[in-house]
Amino acid sequence: APDTRLADRDQVICRRPETVAEALALAGREPKPREYRYIVNGNERVFTRWPEYLRNGQKVGANEPVAPHDVIVSLPVSPPTLAELLGLDEDAEPASIVLFNGGPCRVPLRRWSLTVAGQPAGPQDPVRPGSRVDFSSYEVQPMISDVLLAAEFDPRSLPVGSRVSITLNGGTAEFTTPVKSGDKVDVTISQH
After folding, report:
1. Of 87, 85, 66, nearest to 23 (Cα)?
2. pLDDT tens, 120-145?
3. Distance of CA 123 to the CA centre of its chain
């Protein structure tokens, strides 16, 4: 400690911190995880998140080396998103791949029903600590409407009086027409 009295012939060893964690501990900011508690489908769940750090503006782990004059910044720890809390990964979910106006479009084969405190929520929404989360998933047979949603086609953005024509593999299709991997969906917009 800085106020320790030294006696004649005492040996003092001075060692510089070698890692981000050691430097933070010397500054009284030892890395500790932050715990968030939730009720998920009626059961308590704890989500733990470790802080992240910048060393000279670059993200680093707590065990990365430090040098004299390094600037270390501890980033604020934020609550998880629903996807993080529940382990949801949209890219890892099964999907059909269809061609939408000539380009590949990934159409999910599973849907999630997510609510936080009884209100509908999305996978990327942050979840306040202590919240009640209800979650279920179900498989679906994708339809043209799912393709349009996955392709982020928004008919509300079209000019008034526009006519939308949808074809599936060259034949006429409706919003409720089922689709499968390899299908070709084309949308044509014309003015009246």
Report:
1. 66
2. 999 999 999 999 999 999 998 999 99
3. 7
E-only strand ranges, the chain: 34-40, 43-49, 53-55, 58-60, 72-74, 95-100, 103-108, 110-116, 119-120, 132-139, 162-168, 171-172, 184-191
CA distances in angstroms from 153 to 29, 105, 163, listed in the order given: 48, 11, 14
pTM: 0.67
Structural contact between residues 66 and 55, judged by C-beta atoms closer than 8 angstroms:
yes
Cα separation, 48 vs 71, whole angstroms:
26
60 residue type, one letter: V
Q: Is 192 exposed, middle or buried (0-12, 13-18, 19+ CB in 10 A)?
A: exposed
Which residues, in sequence order, are bridge partners of residue 40?
43, 133
